[in-house]
Each structure stands twice: as structure tokens, then as C-alpha cells.
Amino acid sequence: MTDIRSDSLPMPDQARLLAMLRSTGVEHSPAQSSGADTRPQERHAMLSYGAVTGLLTGLLLVLALAGLMLGSVHIPAPTALGVIVNAVLGMELVPATWRDVYTTIIIETRAPRVILAGAVGATLAATGMTIQAIVRNPLAGPSMLGVSSGAATGAVVAMRWGLVGLGAFSLHLSAFAGALVTLVSVFWVARTGGSMSPTRLVLAGIAMSSVLGALTSLLVLTSPDPQMAARVLFWTLGSFGSAQWKLLPLPVAALIIGLGVMLVQARRLNLLMAGDESATALGLDVNRFRQSMFVLTAALTGVMVAVSGVIGFVGLIVPHIVRFLVGADHRRALPVVALVGASFTIGADMVARSVISPLELPVGIITALVGGPFFIWLLRRDAKGRHA
Amino acid sequence: MSLHPGRLCLEGVSFAIDGRDLVSGISLNAAPGEMIGLLGPNGAGKSSLLRTIYRTNRPTSGQVRVNDMDVWQQSAGWTARHIGAVLQDMPADFPLTVSDIVAMGRSAHKRLFETDSDHDRTLIDSAIALLQLIPFKDRLFHTLSGGERQRVLVARALVQQPAVLVLDEPTNHLDLHHQIQLLRFVRNLGVTVIAALHDLNLAAMFCDRLCLLYKGRMEALGSPEHVLTTERLARIYRIEATLTRNPRTDTVWVMPS
């Protein structure tokens, strides 16, 4: 007669493994490789994490250099490199055999533009990845929080009434104010009884977006300025054309602080993917964490939209590409998503500048033209996977 | 907090939403290493009661204590280091591998920004080996079968090194072989277990004591023989049942008719 309850586990090694699980780490000794294999195994990836990061850093540098070279005036690579090296070192290490105007073009126009594009792309991509974790939906993105629409409304207010007294950056400041007001509203709408469910957060964002979108349209259509619609459309589609050194500190600081916080919280972001109850049982104060991450991502989105307009699809598409490359663990994925996001927007901005040069297209058109079809492909692939 | 059996004590635990009691006045002491089966028809309050243990439902009155510490006075991290939970919510649709998910169990033991040590990796690999998941280590979670997924979630709870393991209907969606394998496994772990179960016969077979809930109240607590009576099965489960014994395990066997 067999007692089903005390039947031993079907593992030859169970006692040793259980003992291992009981260990507190103080008396830690590496796993003996007798019996079951407990050695760490490499992921079945084609490339290691280090190689992927290295390649993508290289890609970012190449694109940044191309961003300095290309434009209405083509500047050869050695010249562009020389200008940058001299500027960074503050002395003429590379003999300046080029025309002075090249230095001016690169330092005054193209360098801040490349930095702005990179900072915005990196932040939007990292923000998108974090938002997807906090609403537990890989198809979410920064524009879903309603903050972009709020920024657009703020920008239109500034365009219509000028908001004198705010100086050269009145447009950006007004857009950021719009984003902040929206952030607070969405937060207030989405929060019930101290908790903020992913569904409510998404619904609150969508509702605020449509209200603000209507408000923006109203302001545009009732404006006495016949050029208003075109200006608003151009701004809404996003551009790095306003890049200048004075504008850079805010988005760059936002990138460094925002990405830093996300990296510190990467382990907790992972827990959110497990589901709210499991995350709680795994030691996370889910409500508080989701709320603080919402405020962080919404504020970052607000800063980026305020300086560059609404650049769609970066925060949606890039996280997908990155998870495909290095997996969904935020500790690995967040640094890579920033690299790829920066590369994506710098590349898109180059295309936007060159297609109808010397005029330029809004960069949002390029990112949407590339991102939209990719998103559709992703959805189709997903649909097939489910029915397979 | 290192996978040594702990003492779980519920004292007059009640939980209400909008003034409606979902659980009222439940008191229960689980000795270290004991396995307790939580029974009751749908809506009896099993999950609501378990949620008060793993810090999702704050009791409106009463206390939940683990090793004499009030769970709700401790941090979420402390709770996660003492209580592991295998729940019904599944990881969202992200490309998470089995290793990624098991590794989540170490979070509560880590400070922010602290990386996984050799010790963490040993624990993760041991849990994966113990649950026979080595071949699935790098597989994506959502490509696994129901039984494999459940084993991954158990492995994740084990690397928390809990003193108490909470299981909410762990045998849902599992075939009979996997149901028995899973219950036998947690029984032999040597931690204190409280599990909501639907299968009365499996509960009688594997649990030391059963706790029968009905409309949020405790109807009975004790050995399977004591708790499972024809009278209660008729009144609470609304079934006419004959009670006999399983000749191989010598445990109560409920035969509905």
C-alpha cells in the first residue's frame, strides 16, 4: 500500500535543492554540480547583452555623426569630427582647415539639434517602456496618458495670446504648464479609494485627450489668425527645429533624472508585470508605486512634448524592439531602450531634414510613417500567434 | 524567513467592502509545517480571507500574524520575505522567460539597485531545478502549459524563502496528475501551507486540517474526518453525498450522488 502523501518527490536531488533554498546566503557555497545542473545558463540569444549594447552604442554614435554632417550644407565627416573634438577640448587639437561657417553650423545648429533629438527619443522610449509596465499593457504609450494633448492645448494658448512676459520660451513653458494641469487631472480622475487601476488610468487618459483635443480645435478654429491652423498642425506633429543650447538643459536633465529613477526602480517595474496581487505578495506597495511612476512618466512626457511637439510612436515601438532584443527584464531593457530611442529619433530627424531640403518635414510624420506600419505588423503577428 | 516553517495565526479576521462582510471573525492557528485546506462553495470568502494574509485586503478588524508579528504592521517587503503566494493572476503579455519570473521572487530581499548575487542565482537555479523546470528556463512564460506555468509560480514563491505559503486554488486548470503532483510537492516542502481548494477528496488526502467557510464565516475547523460530514455537505455544498474511505490512502472520500 503506497501512501500518496509521503511519496518522495520525483527529483533525485530534492533534499540538496531544498537545503539550498533554505540557505540564508551567509554560509553560502556555490552549487555543487552533482546531479541536477544548477549552473547559470546563458540565454539562448544570438548575441550577448554586452554585444547588443556595444553595437547599439556604435549605431547611436554613427547616427549622431551623420546628423552633424547632413543638411542643407553637406559637411564631410572628418570636418564634423574635427569641429566636435576641438569644441569639446576647448582648443585646436585638429588643425581647422575648414571654413569657419562649418564650425558655426555644427556648433550653433546641428549639435544642439542632435542632442535634443537624442534626449527626446531616449526619454520617450524609456517612458513608453515604463508606462507599458504600469498599465500592464504592451500596447500603451506616452500619448495615452493625455499629457501630450494637454501640452498641445497649452502651446495653442501661447500661440493665440502670446503670453507676454514668459520670454523666448513662452511656447514651451505654456505647453509644459498644459501638460502639468493634465497630469493632475488624469491623476485625480484615475484615482479611487487610494488605488489607481491600469484600466482607469488608460480611460482617464483617453477621456482627457479627447476633451483637450476638442478644446485645441476650438481655439484654432475661432482664432483670428488665418495661419493658426498650419502653425498648430506643424507644432503638433513635432520638430526639433527649435533646438538651441539654451533650450537643452531641461530635456537633458529630465532624461538623466528620469532614466536614473527608472533604472533604480527597474526591479519593481518587473514586479508590476506579474499582476497587482502577485506584485503585492512579492513585496511591492503597488498603489503607491504606480502613482509615483505615473507622475514621473507624465512629467517626462510633458517636458519632451513641450520642447519638441508630439512625436508619436517612439514610446510605443522602440520598447517592443528592445524587448525582442534583450527580453522584458527592465534592468537589462531600460539602458538599451534609451540607446535605441535616441538613435531612432536622430535618424528620423535626418530623414525629416533631407526629404524636401531645404524645407523640412515635421519629424512626427516620419516616426508615424515608420512606426505605424510596424505597429500594424506587430498586431497582425500577435493575432496569428494567438490563433496558432 | 528562510523556508523554515512559520506559525500563522489569524485572530478574529473580518473584511468588509462597502459595509458588506465578505469574511467575518475568522480565527485560525496553523502550527509550523502544518498544511491547512480552505474549503467552501463559490463566494464563501476563501480568496478574500487569503488576501488578508498576503496584504491585499486589509482586515477591517482582527489580526494576521506570522511568527507573532502582525503582518499589517510590517512593510510589504517584510511580508514578502515571510509569506509566499501562488495566485491566480498571471503575468501580463510581456516576453518574460521562466528565469525572469522566478527571479522576481528575490525582489523583497534586495535593496534598490542591488544586483543579483551568486546566492540569489543559486536560489533561483535551485528552485527551477526543484520544480523540474530546467528545460524551460529560457522559454517564454506564455508559451508554457497550465501545469508548467503553475510550477513556475511555485518556484517564484520558493525563492522568496517564505515561512508560510499561501495558495489560491492552485490546482485550477491542472489535470489530475498535475494536481496530485503539485499538492504532494508543497506538502513535502516543510513550510506552513494554507491553500484554498475545491476538490474535497484531494483536500482530505493532503491537508492536516481543513477549514470550511460558508458565507464568510467559519463553519468547521479540524481533521478531514471531523469537517466533512454528510450534514455539512448537504447544507453548505447542497449535495447528497456518501462518505467512505479511500482504501489506498485511508482518507475520507466524498462520493456525491
Q: What does this protein structure show overall?
A:
The complex is a heterodimer of chains A (388) and B (257). Chain A has helices spanning 14-22, 49-69, 77-89, 100-134, 147-161, 170-190, 198-221, 228-236, 249-264, 266-272, 276-281, 286-308, 314-326, 330-354, 363-387; strands at residues 191-192, 195-196. By secondary structure, chain A is mainly alpha-helical. In chain A, strand 1 (191-192) and strand 2 form a beta hairpin. In chain A, helix 4 (100-134) runs parallel beside helix 9 (249-264), helix 4 (100-134) packs across helix 13 (314-326) and helix 6 packs antiparallel against helix 7. Chain B has 257 residues and is of the alpha/beta class. Chain B has helices spanning 46-53, 76-82, 98-104, 118-130, 146-159, 176-188, 200-206, 224-227, 230-236, and strands spanning 8-17, 20-30, 35-39, 61-66, 69-70, 83-86, 164-168, 192-196, 209-214, 217-222, 241-245, 252-256. In chain B, helix 3 runs parallel beside helix 5 and helix 4 (118-130) packs antiparallel against helix 5 (146-159).
